[in-house]
Design goal:
mainly alpha, 3 domains, 23 helices
Length: about 475
């Protein structure tokens, strides 16, 4: 069985990233758990992907107009990133601060929003809300460009309170009133975008945020019990100070990184699964002056996180990206990355095109009879391909243990290699029984390689493998 340090590191890398090979887990475990957490939450200064090289192979990635091209590009980024938490935090905020391709000027605007999440997603939460409020994709998606001082559109003001910062209610009570929604919307009048410049003849110009002071309602507003001639920045400062905001951010972090919570619409009348953990995160939210990075440090180093192994159903993105990082395919530009990106869609997560502004429902709602079959077929196809570099590395490592291998060791060794997974005794016994049917396992043979590939396929088809 995998050592405790390796098992804990595998847990951290599944949650703070998309999993890791056994070699990476060993290297990170040797460095230490807390040091690895610091590396993950401080990706600054590390090299990014070289877009000029990628554009030589995929010319349609230069403009990134079509949804499928954007999805393929993000898939490639997640597979190859050297700073996995930066991509994971972009995925986290993308599922909360939602915009969608179904209503956008063009696909790259959402990609630019993801870049904003990468830059600001682990910083100050009110600063993140400020960047979101100025983001052209969001301004267009929630119609704030259609909100004027004499004709207010409440869409952005409502969703800022309901879905982006506070939530409808807490502990059975509402967090805000309809009047607060209206006053919030008034504060964001004049926050709009410049007119788009035609695509031809010099290619598309990206939309830009602009503040039109002439279209801003500068009158006095009463918002969440405070009165003043508030602008959008003032409203965000008031929101950041609310206990409901601390609770909202903390529950989202817990739901995404620790364990599945009830769906967001139930939070007003449903207490957290682990109130003490949420309280710890709330306290850090205020202690750190609303710093998400500090909250993540507390979360990853906590006992409640370390003890939450396999307490979350993997999202489709986690299934696909974790599998590709394990088998080490598409580590360089080549044809075929677009179908890999589409697999995430087929499993129920159409990246950059969520079903509503609420995002996706998570946890067990990721799974139905169709998506489960898609998950198993995809992962089994990948890990069963003994020609892929990551699978070959697993075969070599297991083969180095001796001239022969017992069926029990084959099962346990493969479980270690895919991230220190644990099976029920009944499932493990069945896999051992299957391995025994092949007779003596002699390493270094084609038959052994086939046995490893087949065992990996059986493992990824288990119920346990659907959990992170």
């Amino acid at each position: 069985m995998a050592g405790n340090d390796i098992a804990l590191m595998a847990h951290l890398m599944r949650r703070a990233g998309f999993g890791a090979t056994y070699d990476e887990l060993e290297a990170r475990a040797a460095k230490g758990y807390e040091a690895t957490v610091e590396d993950l939450i401080h990706p600054e200064g590390q090299p990014d992907l070289e877009m000029d090289i990628l554009e030589r192979y995929f010319t349609d990635w230069r403009d990134l107009i079509a949804l499928e091209n954007n999805q393929a590009y993000w898939t490639y980024r997640m597979i190859n990133t050297k700073h996995p938490l930066r991509e994971k935090i972009a995925l986290f905020w993308h599922g909360i601060l939602c915009t969608g391709n179904s209503k956008c000027e063009h696909g790259k605007q959402i990609q630019l929003q993801l870049d904003m999440f990468r830059r600001h997603g682990m910083g100050s939460f009110p600063n993140l809300l400020l960047e979101l409020s100025r983001d052209p994709a969001m301004v267009f998606y929630l119609d704030n460009c259609m909100s004027h001082k004499d004709a207010i559109n409440e869409n952005y003001g409502r969703e800022l309170l309901e879905l982006f910062s506070m939530g409808v209610g807490m502990d059975g009570n509402p967090n805000y009133s309809e009047d607060d929604v209206k006053e919030c919307a008034r504060a964001f009048t004049g926050w709009t975008i410049t007119n788009a410049i035609p695509r031809y003849p010099y290619a598309r110009y990206e939309s830009q945020f602009i503040y039109n002071s002439y279209d801003h309602d500068d009158g006095e507003k009463n918002f969440l019990g405070e009165s003043g001639r508030w602008n959008g920045e003032d409203v965000i400062d008031i929101i950041a100070r609310q206990p409901a905001t601390a609770r909202f951010v903390s529950r989202h972090l817990y739901n995404f990184f620790v364990a599945d919570e009830p769906q967001v619409p139930a939070w007003q009348n449903t207490t957290p699964n682990d109130p003490d953990a949420i309280k710890m995160l709330e306290d850090e939210y205020f202690r750190s002056n609303y710093d998400v990075r500090s909250m993540l440090r507390v979360l990853f180093n906590s006992d409640f996180f370390k003890n939450a192994r396999f307490a979350k159903v993997k999202s489709p993105a986690e299934v696909v990206i974790g599998t590709m990082r394990l088998v080490k395919d598409f580590t360089y530009p080549k044809p075929g990355v677009h179908p890999i990106g589409m697999e995430i869609r087929y499993m129920g997560q159409d990246l950059m095109n969520p079903p509503t502004v609420e995002g996706w429902h998570t946890g067990k709602e990721w799974i139905d009879s169709g998506t489960l079959v898609e998950r198993i077929n995809f992962t089994a196809d990948q890990v069963g391909n003994v020609d892929l570099p990551g699978v070959q590395a697993i075969i070599r490592r297991l083969g180095s243990e001796g001239a022969t291998m017992s069926p029990e060791r084959l099962v346990d060794g493969c479980l270690e290699m895919v991230g220190a997974y644990e099976l029920s005794q009944e499932t493990r016994d069945k896999l051992i029984s299957h391995a025994q049917k092949g007779g003596e396992l002699r390493t270094g043979t084609e038959e052994f390689a086939g046995s490893v590939g087949q065992m990996l396929q059986l493992i990824v088809a288990t119920q346990e493998y659907q959990f992170a």
